Amino acid sequence: MEYPKLDLFIGGEWRKTSETLPVVNPANESVIGALPVARRSDLEDALDAADRGFAIWRKTAPRDRSDIIIKAARLLRERQDEIAYAITLEHGKPFQQAQLEVIRGSEFLEWDAGECQRLYGRAIPGVQGMRHTVLRQPIGAVAAFSPWNFPMSQPARKIAGALAAGCSIILKAAEETPAGALHIARAFQDAGLPDGVLNLVFGVPAEISNFLIPRDKIRLVAFTGSTVVGKHLTNLASEHMTPVLMELGGHAPVIVCDDVDPVQVAPTCADRKYRNAGQVCTSPTRFYVGQDQFERFTDRFVASAKQTVVGPGLDEATQMGPVANERRLVAMIGLVEDAVSKGAELRTGGKRIGDCGYFFEPTVLANVPDNAKIMEEEPFGPIAIINSMLSLEDGIYQANKLPFGLAAYGFTHSSANAEQLIEGVETGNLSINTLEASLPETPFGGVKSSGYGREGGEEGLHLYTVVKNVSHKMVLD
Ligand code: NAD
Hints:
Elements: E1 8-10, E2 13-15, E3 20-24, E4 31-36, H1 40-57, H2 62-78, H3 80-91, H4 95-115, E5 122-125, E6 130-138, E7 141-145, H5 153-165, E8 169-172, H6 179-191, E9 198-201, H7 205-212, E10 218-224, H8 227-238, E11 244-247, E12 252-256, H9 262-273, E13 284-290, H10 294-307, H11 326-341, E14 345-348, E15 352-353, E16 359-360, E17 363-366, E18 383-389, H12 392-400, E19 407-411, H13 415-424, E20 429-432, E21 451-452, E22 465-473
Parallel strand pairs: 7-8, 7-10, 8-9, 10-11, 12-13, 12-19, 13-18, 17-18, 19-20
Antiparallel strand pairs: 1-2, 3-4, 5-6, 6-22, 11-21, 14-17, 15-16
Helix pairs in contact: 2-4, 2-5, 2-6, 3-4, 4-5, 9-10, 12-13
Nicotinamide-adenine-dinucleotide is lined by residues 145, 147-149, 174, 205-206, 209, 224-226, 228-229, 233, 247-249, 281, 327, 378, 380.
């Protein structure tokens, strides 16, 4: 298996440019590829191609769109190992987790391929001879930006929504992890997608967003990434009245109620915390545990953290790979130092492992004071915060006090507690007794500073469409 050749994909053609960016393997810091940087002329071509692609694709029957999307998803499933290998090299995650990501990306495509045939409108009764019909039509060409933490499933989600709704798309995937998006583009080309419907570019993120977002031909901006960048792009789009789909940061609280066995729940929580080295917007991060259960929960969590096997993603025994880049490593070290200096207890971890590769120890901080940076800033890495709560009301108060609201979790056997969580926690996604927050069939997205709009579920295609009302007065003989 090989790391793929890196190209831009514009108007159905693969293209190189003279300027390139290195793609680095975070497990050993070696350079594994040279990624072409899009020039202004490439972006202009992508825009024209997306315009032409939209003219064809919007007129393609939903069933035919669905067939092509399903075919691309099947090809991705068939190429699962090759894609997973590339993702492991560029991102660092364990090979098996990369394989699962390829399947999840295919599932996103398959779900939206089904939804594309169910984009129903409705008929509104009017006065005699008058009919009002409400239609959902594709919004137009989409400028989409996907991050590095899930190189396959994040681009798949944006492409699935756009293509299923009948839109064309220019995707700027993450420069650090381009392979998943490249494989998706290749699969769509092989599946017979008309030229220009899907275009893939890489380069300097700010240059690309500054060029694309103000263009008349771009009718939706879809972004997944940090809240800071999301707000910036939303401001840029608002100057042009261009709608946005924003899937931004989280800082997910987990409320562990007194009625559950902390020793049973803690390993499940630790396993999920360290998945993808904690670089997940829904990663369980702030654990609030009843005072009586606090020490037992923390001890068991720490034991699981210590047992987590950290290493290169291609080693079979590895459960957690390196963090994805040097920025995350520096951020982890800084957040731990800051928390400890303000009185947090470092129960395990807290240090870089070795001096080659971006490996960081699975870390637990306990009794972290509110003035520690990590209580406000999403760690986006393998650090768990465990604090105690005085009561369920207190836990919900702590959960809600940050400006984020993407995913939240609760563990309880009591339906009264569950009801209190459902009513009280400010979040787009609440999971009770499970740490699964995002599935193809359920709508995913945030409230407050965690974003706007939903991906997945029936709601996932809404922002990719516009509603048109047709009032038709029948001329009767
Ligand atoms: P960053 O804020 O520099 O970048 C986040 C993403 O936005 C990257 O994919 C980047 O390419 C893109 N980006 C940055 N500036 C842009 C611009 N002007 N126009 C278009 N795209 C732009 O942060 P980072 O160091 O890559 O990651 C740090 C933080 O980002 C994390 O702590 C986490 O909070 C957040 N993040 C969130 C997700 C998510 O799934 N919601 C994914 C990746 C990163």
